[in-house]
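G., the chain you wanted modeled:
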Amino acid sequence: MTDKNTQVQEKLKRTITLPLLVFYGVGVTIGAGIFALIGEVLALAGDRAPIAFLLAGLIAGVTGVSYASLIKRFPMAGGEAVFVNRGVGALFARVAGYGVVVTGTVSSAVISIAFAGYVREFVNLPEFLLVAMVICGLSAVAWFGVRESVFFAVSVTLIELGTLLIVIAFGAPLLGDLGGVARTLSPTLDPTLLAGILSSGVLAFFAFIGFEDMINMCEETVTPERTVPRAIYWTLGITIAVYVLLAVIAALAEDRQSIVSSSAPMARLFEAVSGLSGKPVAAAATIAMINGILVQIVMASRVLYGMGNEGLAPKWFSAVSPSRKTPARATAFVAGLVLLLALFFPLVQLAATTSLVTLGVFALVNLSLFQLGRRESTGQLHRRRWWGLAGAILCLTIAVFQITFGAAGGH
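Predicted structure as tokens:
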């Protein structure tokens, strides 16, 4: 009787369809980062800022194809840990899985602190109380149900994506300058410009991180082997289109320096193209932070759940709430870890390493595709094995570039 009950409890509830998953993916990918990142990319790449985002989209897309290929074979929660376990073994699988959990919890903690700092401008409450309130509240949403979590994420996504589309709409007249648009998208052989494009492309890549979180929703998605790969491609396509359009408008906008030098560049861009106040755009950036916290908690808890089922983490994490059909223990553990980090640990340097950890995980996933493809004589994994190897080399190259570039920047 106990075994049967355990088997029932270990099943997550499949309620997520393609539209919901795409909204979730777009919400994860288009987060608070782009609201600040547009200015930094514009400063480095100048007129060629759109090319930097296209380059970043290409980098993300290479790994996106690997994820989509592997998820068709292994449509289960745990994502990266499952792929790497099957491809290169349990040791690296644990590294990948715990790496994803670390990046999710650290980024949630950092975003929680940033959110609390902004809210204190309007509400005179202690930072620790605001941090605890937002983490506990969003963790409750994550525990209550995946459908409710995704609907919440969708509603916030509509706000943040809608804000960006409004900026694009006000900037649309600038797109009528076909010569200017062509200039922003034209390649260059100028060494100085090329260096700026490459540097900003690596920087812009991190605005695409998040699409991979969708794979950890597999066991709560309807027909995941078909739905998740489609959602990955749709998410990356929408994200690239939005980012490139914003970059073109920013490159053609008047008073570019005010956008580059501002701590709220998207708000300044909106003011430049509309003549209106940028405060609503700044508010939308804050709302995007809420989405970032929720989706990272949901993602990290699913990774721990999947690792528990794979034997890569304590089985305790694989328990599912009988009433809510969500990984309650994993969610509670992640929420507690986020709260601990946010309240008691200095996070600035730790947060700076999350992008490197992500690139390392991407490299392991791509390498797993190569290894799995090598073992087979036919099939999609076999055909895409070299794609996986190229993706692994690309991710490691970017990581080395980022370490070198970051070190140079630090000095």
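The domain at 14-404 is CATH 1.20.1740.10 (Amino acid/polyamine transporter I).

Shout if anything looks off.
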